[in-house]
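For homework, think about our next protein:
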Amino acid sequence: MKNLVLFALLSMAGVAQFGCSKDKDRPDPKPEPVRLDRDTVSSWLARSSFYITDAWRFAGKDSVDMFKEDTLLPLYANAAFLHFYIEKGNGEIMFHGGGSKIPNTEIPGNALTFSLNIRIFLPTQMILKWDEERGTLGVETRATTSYFPMIVPGKKGYLDPASFNVKMSAEQAKTAKVKPAMRFIYDDDDPKLGKVTYKITMKPMYQYYREPGQQVSAKYFVYP
């Protein structure tokens, strides 16, 4: 009788072990891809300004900080502040036609502060179209301009849905542990490197001061 009990226990242990092993070998289900709502994205980007904080190129296992690779890019980032004109997932990206970095004497934390021309906007030749298949915002370069000579026509990218974290007011941004940001991705063929992927991070700029009646300039802050 004892032998029968022992056999039964061993059998149960074996079944349990087999079951655990089977569960362990079973791959975890892939999470559902993040999809964004067109009107929500449009409402948070519409007539908002963004600062490019970094740009990276990925080729296989290698990654390159493009701000260090091309020293002109940081200069453009500190002189051209992107402005989104968008409605129902369609529109274009403009940029402030005049702006400069100024010392931060008012905003808490490590915020960067800028004085921007809020009256003049110039085209980047980047158009916005909602990408229904991905469930996110798509962007396409239309032409090269003297303002943005690095832009090559016909390139397509998209807003990484998982990175969209700009739904904050200025006060919320000041206290948030994870600061607002979003990232655009585009794939390309490099003549030397082959298939490459670029990831560009943008962060929202918040107006914090404008003189009464002032229609030309205002002060903005952004958390890098």
Remarks:
- The longest helix spans residues 2-25.
- Helices lie at 2-25, 38-45, 66-69, 72-77, 170-175.
- The CA atoms of residues 68 and 96 lie 24 Å apart.
